[in-house]
């Protein structure tokens, strides 16, 4: 039987699909019986999902047009 | 204690290119401007985010990315088409960041030097404060049971999350930026940052555990 503390150390390997079958089952068995660890996993998943949303670039993150023009000029020089 | 999965710790092989990438490389080599614009548009924001991990201002990050694109053009004809174009470009940025840092280190008085990359990274501690468990490893101070999704809908919390990422030690920050924000695979991230597979796992675990701990604090408010 895994302990709650072990769950918090194995959780990344669980989410990454790095646990073998036996450990994955032990992990899931614990989760089925422990609402605290379910809350923990839910928080971790929510954090990862929120991180993904940080990829939407803010308007100021777009490449400045003069830089884009300069790069394109270099590309034209490069290809000739 | 569960048997921790083990993986060979040797050098990570370079991720292979996708068919779409190979087609893009062919267009680039043929001088197709639209292909170049597409490439820059696709990778500019992620490159900028990664650059910002290694330099201290947005302006320097922008500079580093521009340097990277110039270096990409310089190297493109010699690019080995079997390798992944994306990780090749990202790796160029990481290498240029290192060069830049070495150059700055030579011209900066010792007292002003930033700590070495890796120093003080705190990559090993526990995911959760051990004081929150009893002697049998059960929660005594369990996590909040509210809705973390609800807490994260808030724009302010989103800004806090970005700040928490920025406060991570350099390698952890670079890794979560690549993995969790820009969606690179573990293999790609290892290749870009020169990490072993097992090192990548440890750093990712540490970084995500820290960010979750921050989220838990915000949920309490
Ligand atoms: Zn538990």
Write the layout of secondary structure elements.
The complex is a heterodimer of chains A (80) and B (221).
Chain A: H1 4-15, H2 21-33, H3 35-53, H4 65-79
Helix pairs in contact in A: 1-3, 2-3
Chain B: H1 19-29, H2 33-54, H3 58-76, H4 85-107, H5 148-153, H6 155-166, H7 170-181, H8 186-193, H9 197-220
Helix pairs in contact in B: 1-2, 2-3, 2-4, 2-7, 3-4, 4-8, 6-9, 7-9
The site of zinc ion has 6 residues of chain A, from helix 1 and helix 3.
Describe this protein's structure:
The complex is a heterodimer of chains A (80) and B (221). By secondary structure, chain A is mainly alpha-helical. Chain A has one domain: Orthogonal Bundle (Arc Repressor Mutant, subunit A), CATH 1.10.10. Chain A contains four helices and no strands. Chain A has helices at 4-15, 21-33, 35-53, 65-79. The model of chain A has no long low-confidence stretch (mean pLDDT 91). By secondary structure, chain B is mostly helical. Chain B is 62% helix and 0% strand. Chain B is built from nine helices and no strands. Chain B has helices at 19-29, 33-54, 58-76, 85-107, 148-153, 155-166, 170-181, 186-193, 197-220. The two termini of chain B are 35 Å apart. Mean pLDDT of chain B is 86; it is low at 1-11 and 111-119.
